[in-house]
Specification:
Blueprint: E1 2-5, H1 14-27, E2 32-36, H2 42-52, E3 60-63, H3 66-71, E4 78-82, H4 88-97, E5 100-105, H5 109-120, E6 127-131, H6 139-149, H7 164-167, H8 181-198
Parallel strand pairs: 1-4, 1-5, 2-3, 2-4, 5-6
Helix pairs in contact: 1-8
Protein name: AAA family ATPase
């Protein structure tokens, strides 16, 4: 399965989503990899820090570029593509490459608007918006969830709660609890399987 994680807005948790999804796939018994096509190389730096501290991740993280994405065949069972913000060429190529695209957004109106805008760039490619940093009893989180459910863009049933373990995970081994990313991975599998069955 090929999963792209993207949003034209930066700072919405794309890299964390990519890394946690790869770990969820690994724990589900899949050979997993993250392809880091973001020039900032945050996913690659994360993996490097884990190696330096002798706590390597259970999946590979590989630098990628646009030319490589267009010709490469994934070796792993699940490949998660971590993309940069504000690069229309990569955004379009990632939508075409992926079996499904995850568009993370935090619980603010500006993030949500950009997530919906990003979804529209897919021209009907399989994709959904993922609400992250969700707090059940917080008005802003609830309003954002309702905004998503009432928009034309599809959103995932799974929401990712606000957790310190997720926010502070950069450069660390994956925590015991994946904060619903394991549930998201199962939801993605179901969606992709249903798409393949209908083809």
């Amino acid at each position: 399965m090929k999963i792209a994680v993207q949003n034209t807005k930066g700072g919405v948790g794309k890299t964390r989503t990519a890394m946690f999804l790869a770990e969820a796939a690994r724990r589900a018994g899949e050979q997993a990899a993250v392809w880091d096509i973001d020039q900032q190389g945050t996913a690659t730096s994360w993996a490097d820090r884990c190696l330096e501290s002798q706590t390597p991740l259970g999946f590979t993280v590989e630098p990628m570029n646009l030319a490589g994405l267009r010709r490469a065949e994934p070796a792993a069972g699940v490949v998660v593509l971590d993309t940069p913000p504000g690069n229309p060429q990569i955004t379009g190529a990632a939508f075409q490459w992926a079996d499904i695209t995850v568009i993370p957004t935090g619980p603010t109106s500006d993030e949500t608007e950009r997530a919906v805008e990003t979804w529209g760039m897919g021209n009907g490619a399989p994709a959904g918006i993922l609400l992250t940093r969700y707090v059940k009893n917080e008005r802003e989180s609830w309003d954002t969830l309702l905004q998503l459910r009432n928009s034309d863009a599809p959103d995932f049933e799974t929401v990712i709660p606000r957790r310190v373990a997720i926010a502070s995970a950069f450069g660390q081994p994956m925590p015991r609890s994946l904060g619903n990313y394991d549930k998201l991975y199962l939801e993605l599998m179901q969606v992709v399987n249903s798409i393949h069955e209908s083809e």
